[in-house]
């Protein structure tokens, strides 16, 4: 016999008193060991609409709801609660195997849905075009609509109507109908469902289909239960959406790019992929998981430990630390080198100034600085021939062939001056590393995974490419172009990475945040055009959250004192209500925006955590004080975005008005992305506050 656990079962368990939780753990263990044991009575209940559901005794007053097999040997543990509440939960539920999707579906009995429609649908006399009228019954069945619900689905008028009955539908059905209404093609949806099915024919084996594992899994130990007893359930370790699972266990001809809006489980998919690779690699093979910042690297290390990934052959490092280590290991430069921006040395513009002080040139230091960064380093231009041919896309001002020769002259002088100081650009070291690895055919790793890939530049992507031989499953790259907040140009083809067509995948379910917060986040960037890093348009819609919550608020106060009083007052109530300080974040566009909130927390004796260069400093478990840049990649139950007004979002600076249009638009777009990042960090609740005039980025 087998016992499968419904993912929602754990939500019912979390809300029970600790003593009862322990009894439930014992109960399920006993059941797993022997479903026929004398202590377990499975009682059919007359009022249950689904006759395969049984009630089982956990103790005098608590009952578990179990589905017994109609054929085969598999039981399903579905819910646990106080006797009456457990019965109430089970009474109108239907649990039904769907052959078309190979998944167990859980939904409200059709008569419940019909009743709901009587109260919500528009006047029956009005001729309204129904939302799914263009699809045949067969098509709707193929995307997982249970046949008994077809009549109800047929009368839905619009997306709002669909959202209203979400809680009555099987989750996979709701998702697919949502996508269909949102413009997805039925063929694509059917294709994805087929991919999640197994070829196994026995009923018991089909229960292990990718589609079914989304909500029903077998557990062979008590790990998940122990997490609940410790108050730290991490469902992402056990349950994966089919779209995640396919990426995790898949075999790919080469590189794979996974994109998806904030909170769609990209990092989770990459972590599981790392575990899969580490369990399936040959001995001696090496895996790298890299990202952009130190803070995210620390987070990845923690999550990898949570997932109990074997650390043998595994490196988790941010790209800078890794590249510098390799440059040193391969002795590519003298030991006393210094890097612009990392060491306290002159900046590169000062070196250009030195060069120009001995030259009569029509080019100024700003132009040369940018030409060097955006053309010479970007394309790793090594000589005049290459420079004469190098594309100068995005540089604005065109220059003639003769002018290019003049510029190259200056570049050589700049290189010589820089060399006497042993100063390097970071990208220069990266280019050296790439050239070395390619020339020696030395490959540092066998598999490389990258998170937050939108933060990488092409130079960094070339490093990634050179670290691993081109082969099946070599690169697994996850990121979200909409979260691109640094001004870096990315083009995968130019970096030698092929992720065209079927090698680009997308995740769409937002696991982090409520639908209300997700909607606000997407409204900020919906009018902007984003590139998918291959010159095509990145979608800014089509994402869905599966839970709801309070609508985000945006309040403008008359004074800073009022704003801080309100935010700190709300935080004090949250703490009284049982929230932990580390579950709360206050975030602002600039560091200075946090100052008053820090003082107010201090005065109230509420612990707070500050961040420097992405790492926590001082108290580790306090209310988090973060800039929008630092909050990237993280998440908190309660988020307060403070100091938000028309001067901070977009962040105003004196010469903003006089920037050329293209630069201004690019700036506005990156400021919107930054706010989108900040908004999308909230799990349960988001409050936006400020003084002065409202920012027009926030439409609430
Ligand atoms: N299959 C899953 N089941 C339950 N929770 C999940 C699942 N996948 C992801 N999550 C949760 O959703 C949240 C967001 O996941 P994750 O950080 O992987 O998203 P992301 O796409 O990398 O987000 P971002 O781009 O905003 O950083 C996390 O709390 C994670 O634990």
UniProtKB/TrEMBL annotation:
Q: Quick one: which residues bind ATP?
A: 260-267
According to UniProt, the reaction catalysed is: Couples ATP hydrolysis with the unwinding of duplex DNA by translocating in the 3'-5' direction; ATP + H2O = ADP + phosphate + H(+)
The UniProt keyword set, sorted, is: ATP-binding, Helicase, Hydrolase, Isomerase, Nucleotide-binding
Organism of derivation: Algoriphagus oliviformis
- Specify the UvrD-like helicase ATP-binding domain's residue ranges: 239-514
An example Pfam family from this entry, by short name, is UvrD-helicase
Q: EC top class, in one word?
A: isomerase
Q: What is its EC number?
A: 5.6.2.4
Report the Gene3D superfamilies cross-referenced here. Answer: P-loop containing nucleotide triphosphate hydrolases
Protein origin, superkingdom: Bacteria
User: Which protein is depicted?
Assistant: DNA 3'-5' helicase
For this protein, the record's SUPFAM superfamilies field holds: P-loop containing nucleoside triphosphate hydrolases (SSF52540), RelE-like (SSF143011)
